Known about the structure:
By secondary structure, the protein is mainly α. It has 26 helices and two strands.
Amino acid sequence: MEHVLQNPRRRWRLLPDPWSFTAILISLVVLGPIIAVATIALFPTENIWPHLLATTLPRYLGNTLVLMGGVGILAALTGTGAAWLIARYQFPMAGWFEWLLLLPLAVPAYVGAYALVDLLEYAGPVQTGLRAVFGWESARDYWFPEIRSIGSAIVVLAAALYPYVYLLARAAFHEQSGASEEVAMSLGQGALKRLWRIGLPLARPAVAAGTAIVMMEAVNDFGTVDYFAVQTLTTGIFSTWLEGNNAGGAAQIACVVLVLVIVLVTLEKVSRRRARFFNQGGRHRPIARKRLRGGRALLATLGCALPFTVGFILPAGTIFLHALERASLWTEPELYRAAWNTITVGSIAAFLTVFGGLLLVYGVKLSGRVLPRLLQPITTIGYAAPGAVLAVGILLPLAAFDNALADFTLALTGFDPGLILTGSSFALILAYFVRFFAIGQGAADAALERVSPSLGMAARSLGRQQGQVLREVYLPLIKGSVGSALLLVFVDCVKELPATLLLRPFNYDTLATRVHDQASLENLVEASPAAIFIIVVSLFAVILLARANRANF
């Protein structure tokens, strides 16, 4: 005791400093909905777990696993194949395809689903044209694959999500040394053998990480699987909660989703840790791209054109043509009200997310405490958690707090304030904050790592406080990364559908919910202006991402 009293510095270290407290508080806000989901699932008001196990849960889980596996495999093959062609060969339009292959990220998967059904359904232009050409009179005269099926959902999701694999795999292929490639060629190894024995093993961590992201996004999807009538765990949360009026059952399904995602992330990290491949030396000679000619050049061009066409040209083109059919749709007040809601909520959420991520990373670096350092990586789980899961963990506790607050205010003052938090966009902003916090935190962490610590020390020696150092030294140096993170989070907020559907206030539309509501009623023409807005906004972020990655090669 005397030793502690004689050491003020040690006594101060035992107390929480402001930066540690800030980092811990932000971490708890991010982890709160996940903890709430687990708590509600363990202590439901009505336990329907045995009923779920005996009836719908096996079907939900089976469809989800098939969807995850199918989308992951197809996206991995497409993204890795396109990345290999771009990184290793020169062929017609290769320079254009290097960034065109990223554009499907600008089209939400549910928009692609609406466009695919519009093109391929019985009354669509494809089947109508086939009947006109071959003289068929009805569907009994010919066979056509079922459009609203899990197979179609896999194709649509893979076409929208393969750029995650392509982006990481392309970077990995670019970073590989030309020496190993030349040695393999001197030993008579063909292109496919070089890809299988050298390229893929070296790029395996990047491909695995991209595929894991794709599979997590497939679990999160609601608009696509709902439109194709595929019952997954995410649709099960909606039906159990909204149709069955059982929040505890929805939380129990949400926990299954969380376990599935955690297992997926763990397997991905374990696979990367057990397989390590290194380039020898910090400087290595890049691989010279080989020029293809004739039929091989044509095949390579078609191989890159196909995913770009399916993932961007067809859905964006279909939606754009529908948007031109009725000019009056562009003047509807509801459209611009939804656009204003989207911009407002997305902007606030993006600012809070990036600012919160910056404070967390900066606080962890300053404090040096064990608890903030342990919590920091765990906060990235929000990005892996589907929006529907976060909605369960946010809405139920907030609704209970709102009702308790309203009852207390009514008993104390005789005035009923109504639902303050759940009756506003607060819950929606909180869901976006938790869902995309990993983007803000990751950008802040990478940016601060590039700034020399000596700059902060110099500012401190001149009498600046830690907050002033952040504002006057670090922020001007990392403003580019912060701006990119703001844009990326904003675009993700614009496209987010499951959490928005569950958490939006009454009579409150965003562009995403307007597209879903109209398309679910088969009014694709009326849904098209809002979908065009989403695509145009998303294109800005994709173009910025393409420019940033192109500058690195």
